[in-house]
Amino acid sequence: MKRLIQWLVVVLFIALLFGVWTARSAMRVAVGYSAKQVCSAVFVSGLPEEFVLDRDVLPNMAILGPLLGSLNVHTDRAAGVVSASLLGVSAQAVHLSGRGCSLNATGPVVAQLTLVKEGPESPGVPAELSQAVEAAFAEPSPATGSRNTLALLVATNGELRLEQYVSPVTQQTRLQGWSMNKSLMSTWVGIQTQKGELDSAQTLNVLLADDPEAPELDPGLTLLHLLQMESGLDFVEVYGPGSDVTKMLYTAPAMWQVPAGKGQAYAPGQHFSYSSGDTAFASYLWQRSLDEPYEDWIAREFTAPLGVDSLVAEADASGVQVGSSYAYLTARDWLLAGQLWLDAWHGRSTLLSQEWLRDSVSARPSDPQGQYGRGFWLNTDGVAFEGLPDNLFYAGGHAGQFVVVIPEWEMVVVRLGLTESGVSTGVHDFLIALAGLRASGIASE
Fold first, then answer.
1. Looking at the predicted structure, is the pLDDT value of residue 14 above 50?
2. Under a CB-based contact definition with an 8 Å cutoff, are residues 178 and 418 in contact?
3. Domain range annotation of the chain
4. Which segments constitute the Beta-lactamase-related domain (predicted)?
5. What does the DSSP assignment read for 277-311?
6. What CATH number was assigned to the domain covering residues 118-179+327-445?
């Protein structure tokens, strides 16, 4: 009996340690997420702190249960800093000059928000689409959570046809694309590849041969494997305390090192597994190919040619752009990115080649469902949007971010929001409504 009691004590002690470790891991993620999201909302998007807390932070941190009441977030507008704390665990996000907000970073901190210039007058909502737009912004049953549609835009033949926002969001508000940054990263790698500055088909061991911090990787692993989510790295895209992706986004100073150090679970090119780690690693490799600060490269090679003036691409604490998650643009500028992809698909872009874009929106053998290409989601056999064209492709992100490109309709649709987990974004229904109303002129003129 005495030995049994001793074993029970040991087991209980181990369980207690595990519980404490799990709780602290959850708290580190909670304070990191809270500080980062509020900092970017206030200093990059120009949104009220209360708005982002109510619509973003608190719903996403509800997993904390009774601990949520102890989460404290403080914004120092004069210093450009947001801090968050929870039972002795804390994090700080700072607004850096030209690079938006970063967790626990150092650098030239600025308090002022760089405003976006007001653009041409909005076309509003065509009468024939008013019902579909109303449905897209409508909230479902309160019991299921909030849809929180913030912006909805449609362009056909390069012309803005429909634009609607919900206050306090306006046409001048930068909004987070989350994983739509992956589509941007694929585009930026494509541009560097076309310029001959980066060999995206080269193995990573060769690309990193002069990097003392690089681990030994599978000899067949390439940059294309990373962009196509078929690296085979043992990185799991599960959002929870201590998981790979939350550790990467909210605790790692150099995010790319988390996936790079995981080792192989599969041979490269053999298995599709959606992974923010793959794109974070790809971003590091893309940035190594530049001979200047990445924001200068983006300004010259991407935003200036497109006429985009709002893009803010944020970095981790090591200074590497978080290519998986942290790009902010106005809804109109997200639309311009979609127009670039549409033009490239048709072979009429001087910025991005038709070959690169078509390859990027082609299904990979590693993905039997045909749902992903190279930084873009696909609609192979209606896998994403049943009843809509198979060649539809889109950039997609957490909480209902979409830039949908429909080549045969010459159409780009942008939907941005803060949709809670498990709640329909309403995008499929809206696209079906567009399909039904194309004869009215919005999609065909």
1. no
2. no
3. 2-103, 118-179+327-445
4. 138-416
5. HHHHHHHHHHHHT-SS-HHHHHIIIIIHHHT----
6. 3.40.710.10
